[in-house]
Write a structure and sequence with these properties.
alpha/beta, Rossmann fold, 2 domains, 8 helices, hydrolase, DUF915_hydro-like, hydrolase activity
């Protein structure tokens, strides 16, 4: 009789724990829209020069309000590259969102910033065991991502990028700083008429860019071929760097007043495009 009671209690406990786990899982999925894919792959957001995670909040809040995800954390990167994760990603969280913040937001050392990107991925991998990620970057944040790929495209021990959004990318420089004068690009190949030093260092990506990545290139045009800070030519020179290696590549031009450089990530149209690209069924 005692053995029977112990057996019954064991079965009851197992069923109860299963029920509780089910409730927890349902709470993670609650209030999420079925219009979007439900994946455990996190999406990381990288800001530009002189900015911070606050610049990513409009986008991320919009994704939460749309029912894409209810899980948002911040990866804070110190000047020495140390990564601190603020917040928690529950087990099986749907479409978790990670806002990355570079404390040294005035660095133009792209090799160093590429290492910071790697550090963020390694920290997420160590804590949550992610094997895949999506990435969005704005402005000079794109250079951090591209220099990360330059150094780590063949490193399969790291989480592998599945989808990448480049927004207002300063691939061949920014106006009034390091963008070559009278820059143009070949519409077919994306090859720029001139290449600054940081662009030339990225040329090996023409033979390294990971083939599994779906890439979306978003740029703003205020009717004069630029977004006030970066020329369309600089943004579109990305095409030459990937050299038809991406799984897919698409360019989207944004117009109107919200196409201005610093407003692209505060643009409802852009939010819809990102939602469809990252999580559309």
């Amino acid at each position: 009789m005692t053995k029977f009671i112990k057996f019954t209690l064991t079965i009851f406990t197992a069923l109860f724990l299963t029920f509780i786990y089910g409730l927890a899982a349902n709470s993670i999925h609650a209030d999420l829209s079925n219009k979007y894919i439900h994946s455990t792959t996190p999406t990381l957001f990288f800001h530009g020069y002189g900015s911070g995670a606050h610049a990513e909040e409009y986008m991320v809040n919009g994704f939460v309000e749309a029912g894409v995800s209810k899980t948002v954390i911040t990866a804070d990167v110190a000047g020495d590259g140390t990564v601190t994760l603020k917040g928690d990603i529950p087990h099986n969280a749907v479409n978790p969102l990670v806002m990355v913040n570079f404390n040294d937001n005035h660095s133009t050392n792209y090799e160093l910033q590429g290492q910071w990107v790697k550090n963020v991925l390694e920290e997420l991998q160590a804590k949550y065991h992610f094997k895949k990620v999506n990435i969005e970057a704005h402005s000079m944040g794109n250079m951090a991502v591209m220099y990360f790929l330059l150094a780590n495209a063949g490193n399969h021990n790291l989480p592998q990028i599945q989808k990448q959004v480049a927004m207002a990318g300063t691939f061949d420089g920014a106006i009034g700083w390091n963008e070559p004068a009278n820059l143009t690009v070949n519409k077919k190949t994306g090859k720029p008429s001139a290449m600054n030093d940081s662009y030339q260092k990225l040329l090996p990506l023409r033979h390294r860019y990971p083939r599994q990545i779906k890439l979306l290139n978003i740029y703003g045009d205020l009717k004069d071929g630029n977004d006030s800070q970066v020329s369309n030519a600089s943004c579109l020179s990305l095409k030459y760097l990937i050299n038809n290696r991406a799984r897919s590549y698409r360019e989207v031009k944004i117009t109107g007043p919200n196409a201005k450089h610093e407003l692209l990530h505060h643009n409802p149209q852009v939010n819809k495009i990102l939602i469809n690209f990252f999580w559309g069924k």
